[in-house]
Amino acid sequence: MHKFFVPKDKFYDGFAVIEGDDVKHIYRVLRLGIGEKISINNCNGNEFLGEIVEVNKREVKVKIIKKLPLNNESTIGVFLFQGLPKSSKMDLIIQKTTELGIKAINPVSMKRVVANGTRDMKIERWNRIALEACKQSKRSLIPVVNKLCTFEEMISQLKNMDLVVVPYENKKRYGLKRLFNKIDKINIKNIAIVIGPEGGFEEYEINILESIGAEIVTLGPRILRTETAGFTTLSIIMYEIGDLGGNM
After folding, report:
1. Which pLDDT belongs to residue 61?
2. Which domains are seen in the chain, by residue range?
3. Which of 60, 65, 100, 245 has the fewest CB atoms in 10 Å of its CB?
4. Cα–Cα distance between 130 and 112 in angstroms, integer?
5. What is the pTM for the complete model shown?
C-alpha cells in the first residue's frame, strides 16, 4: 500500500487533503484514482487507512477509514551530529541514516570542514530527502535536518544526551563492543553520534568531547569516510540497543 505524509493541519472532519508534489505523483506516476486505498501519516507518528474520494491537479482528498496500529520507530532516539561534508555526501548521509532510524540530523561546522559556505540554502532540499527516505522505509516519523550549528552549540546540546559516541581514527583498542559491554543499555534512551568532517577532528575538539563524558571509540582497523562512518555507527547502535535485527 502506498504511503503519504500529510501535515496534521490538513486533516479535518474525517478527511485528509494531500497537496504539493505528491498530487502529481499520485495521479500521473502511480495512477491512483477514486476508490484506491492508501496509508496516510499525519507527520506526528499516527498512521491511518484512507480511501481516495477526489483527485484533481491541485489536491487529492482522502476519506479516513480507521487508525492503523502501526509504529515503525525505535524505542531509542539517536541524533547525528555530522561535520559538514562537501559535494553531495550529505544527501547520502541523510538518506541512509533516515532509513536506519535516525531521529534528527545536525550539520556541524568544525575546524577541518572543507565545504564552502553554510549550506543553509540546502536545508529545505535535505529535509525533502529525509521525507522521501521515510516513505521508502515506511517510517512513522520524519527526522528533521536542522540548520548548520557551531561546534560550541553542538557541545551544549550533547550535554542533554544519555550517551555520546564519537568514532575517531586515532583511538586504539576501545571500540563499540567494549562500550556496550560496560554500559547499562536499559536506561539509555537518547544517544548522539558525532562524526568528523573529511579532514577529521582536531585534537582539541576530541579533548572537549572527552571532557563532557563522550565515548571516543574506534570502528576498527580500516579508516571509514565521513559519509560511511555515521550510518555504520548507527547500524551497530540500532542492533545493540534498538530494533535493527528484530526482537529475537
Report:
1. 96
2. 3-68 (2.40.240.20), 77-240 (3.40.1280.10)
3. 245
4. 26
5. 0.89
